[in-house]
Design a protein that fits this description.
11 strands, 3-stranded parallel sheet, 8 helices, 4-stranded mixed sheet, 35% helix
Length: 203
Amino acid sequence: YSDCFHLFKRISISFICFSAPSSLFIFAHTLFPDSGTHRAGRFQRLELFSTALIRDASAVYFSGGNPYYLAQTIEGTRFWHVLLEELDRGVAYVGCSAGVACLTERTYDSDTDDFEEVFKPGLAYTRGVLFGPHWDVLDTWVTGAREAIVASLGPDEVLVGLDERTAIVGDGASWEVRGVGSVHVIAGGVTAGQTWSSTTAPS
């Protein structure tokens, strides 16, 4: 891990693996084996280490995992505050799966099988939007998941469903679709929305 981080720093990309308890603990243990057996000490040093990295980065990448766990892990931390400052400075944010789903006002707790309990608070960086990663395969994992997510939308909420191997690339003013799949935009209160692919997305 440390060798990878030195490589990523040279090319100005920081990879953040805070989306699952196991990966976070292994990450901290590998980087800081001398911090004893207490997880808090390792995590504190990991936060300082990661915060220093993003100050030098051109882009920050958040991996997949549990979106709710990711939001809980970084919300209110110095790392999160520094990241917000860097995003304002122009650092690019790249999120995969949980790395994008955590950004909204409500997100998913992927550790629960009870749909009544699946929605939990997110980071609220993006407001009025609910991201739906893995949109094209979601129903193969949980039957009826897409319909249930659409039904949960508030009247002023918009769902952005992202197919696998597909991304939205934007600068805050305009966006486009990249990849082999599509992006599906559904407003709360309706059952059908608009779909864009890499050849039809608005600029």
